[in-house]
Amino acid sequence: MRPASLVEKGGPLVSAEVRVALMEHLLRTDDIAACAQHCLEWLAAHAGVQRAICAGLDEEGERLVGNASVGVSPLLVAEFWIEVEERNHPLIATLRRTEAVRFSGGGRHPITPLGDEPFIAVPLGRQSTDQLALGLLLLAGDSVTRSPNVQWVVEILSDKFLSLRSRHLASESRFGRERSLLHGVINAVSDPILLTDSDGRLVIANTRAENLFVSREDESEGRRRAVSMNNMLLSAALAGRAMERDHARNELLLVDPNEGSDLLFELMSQPVREGDGEVGIVSVLRNVTDLGRASAEIGETYEKLQLAQARMQSERHRLDLIIDSVADPIIVTDAAGDIMLMNKPAERLFTVQIPGNEEAERRVRSNDAHFSSFISNLLFSGSEKRVRGDITLVDQETGESLPVEAIAGKILSPQGELTTVVTILHDQREALEKARLYEQLKKFSTELEARVQAATAELAEQNELLRRQAVELEQASAAKSQFLANMSHEFRTPLNAILGYTSMLLQGVSGKLLPAQQKALSRIDSNGRHLLDLINEILDITRIESGKMPLHISRFELQALIDEVFAELDPIISRSPAQVTARIPANIPELETDRQKLKQIVVNLISNALKFTHEGRIRVVAGYNARSRMVTIAVSDTGIGIAEEYHQKVFEDFRQVDASTTRAYGGTGLGLSICRRLSSMLGGRITLKSKLGKGSTFTLHIPRKSRRP
Ligand code: ADP
């Protein structure tokens, strides 16, 4: 459809030759701006147009953009554009018209590079009423519009606009088909594929690549962040690739924007060249995450395997050390019962140690047979993990029987299958010997127990017997004491009469005696007196033993008592060759005891000293220990002394150091035993220190105060 003429007719058309030249020019170029520019210049040359602008819709049909001019600065024209959206803009409104519109300046005059000057806007390339014109020709002034040349140029420029647009549309649709085909193809590939331009901007991407590198505003913050991170990583990888070499194959670690997990890709990139320059890069990403994971796992498994192998070797080494250091034989057998391993002690039983020795070989075979039978029993022993049994083996060297206790442990695989059996053999000889000894010991102990019981019973019987005998003896002793007391008393009366008459005869009461008579009577007198002494002493002992000698406690001074004793013994002291002294210290307190009994003891001790001392001296020394409250009276002499072995014996009844003593010194052998009994009655004792030939010291120890009976 040609635009209706608003241009007034006038002026002649230029020659056909000039017009053909323009048309030829237009046919040679498909660039609308170049065509428009040529047309405007033609009009300036042949139609007197001085100032004019041509504007056309852009490819998207969204803007009206200035593309050629004459008499106007091309810079202003290049910056001249109007949004088609501005439907009320007078020039956009003109695009919807078929006729030229005149703008005569003033109030609603549109802003164009022509300024305020009036102009006519002629629509160019209007196809139909429902479509916009493809461009506008703005011609300043009025005069040129009447020219038929202008009319003609408008027509051919409109045609050019229309033909270029239809060609563009055709190529657009072909390009669109190709593009969607390309999308179909790259989307069919499971790997992300993308084309980036030389600035790194994404031009084409398949769905998988879009998932990684494209996000929308309405998507989650996490996803958008992951996508921007992926873009950065990809740009860095591509930049790195550019520095390395073309067709690089690199690993690229990205983030899964949906799940946040790591994704490992192999990046294959190929530059796209146009002419001499690189216009973009095609990148294909191969997901090798699983491959990476698998290879990492294989690496890990391999390391574990190595470690396990090393551990197994050290365990094996340790096991060898352990089983070799155990003194008991250890045998390791497999599930079939074949021996896999054994230690040295086991080798001595199950391998021939003396090559060529038939006897040894026979013994080893016998041991093998016994052990195999034990193992085969164990293989049928069910689920028990430990099995014990007794086997009798043979010592290879000595041929001695070797009873052993076999303890076998089963080692099972994780599936529960028997893999190995470890058997330890304990030599039972010692245990059996111990058991035998123990039995023997038990028997002995039972026998001993019976014997002890019998002996105890016998002892009890003897004790009972002894007890009865003691009772009987006690009774007999009491009877004897009684008898002796009675007899002594009975003896004393006639004896005193005998002594009295003998004394009278000796004194010449019955006339003068012949020397022989005198001698005989003297003997009667001395033997009678000895007998009286004896009887008196026996009487004392029997009275003490039968408890018929009571204590008479009184208070007295020791010094006084000693003086009394010295006075009584004076006839003997004065005849003694020894010097007799007494020393009673003043610190000795008053005594409270049986005076008579104490005196009897002291008299006896001094009498003995006088009897057995032929030279030197006799000393009576008293002492007092305030702490123990004990009084001591020591009678020392320089006499014949007493041998060590008689120190105890001299205190026994009728005991003298030797029989000759009686003959040489007289005496009864009862004096010291009476002293011992008396001192004991006073709560004290007598001690003796003496050396044969050197003298003796008898010491009486009594409490200052005797306990009342
Ligand atoms: P006897 O009446 O015989 O003196 P004793 O019992 O008094 O009896 O003494 C027993 C014996 O102890 C004496 O026979 C004597 O052998 C010995 N004996 C006692 N006192 C002394 C002493 N002072 N020196 C040496 N021997 C003594």
List keywords for this structure.
Beta-Lactamase, 5-stranded antiparallel β-sheet, alpha+beta, 17 helices, 5 domains, binds adenosine-5'-diphosphate, 709 residues, 6-stranded antiparallel β-sheet
Report on this model:
The protein is of the alpha+beta class. The protein has 5 domains: 16-167, Beta-Lactamase (2-Layer Sandwich); 189-320, PAS domain (Beta-Lactamase, 2-Layer Sandwich); 326-427, Beta-Lactamase; 428-549, Helix Hairpins (Orthogonal Bundle), CATH 1.10.287.130; 552-703, Heat Shock Protein 90 (2-Layer Sandwich), CATH 3.30.565.10. Helices cover 48% and strands 22% of the residues. It contains 17 helices and 23 strands. The strands form 5 sheets. Strands 3-2-1-6-5-4 form a 6-stranded antiparallel sheet. A hairpin with a 4-residue loop joins β12 (330-334) and β13 (339-342). α11 (429-506) crosses α12 and α12 (515-545) packs parallel to α17 (671-681). Mean pLDDT is 87; it is low at 1-10. Adenosine-5'-diphosphate binds at residues 608-609, 612, 637, 639-640, 642, 650, 656-657, 661, 667-672, 696. The site of adenosine-5'-diphosphate (ADP) has 18 residues, from α15 and α17.
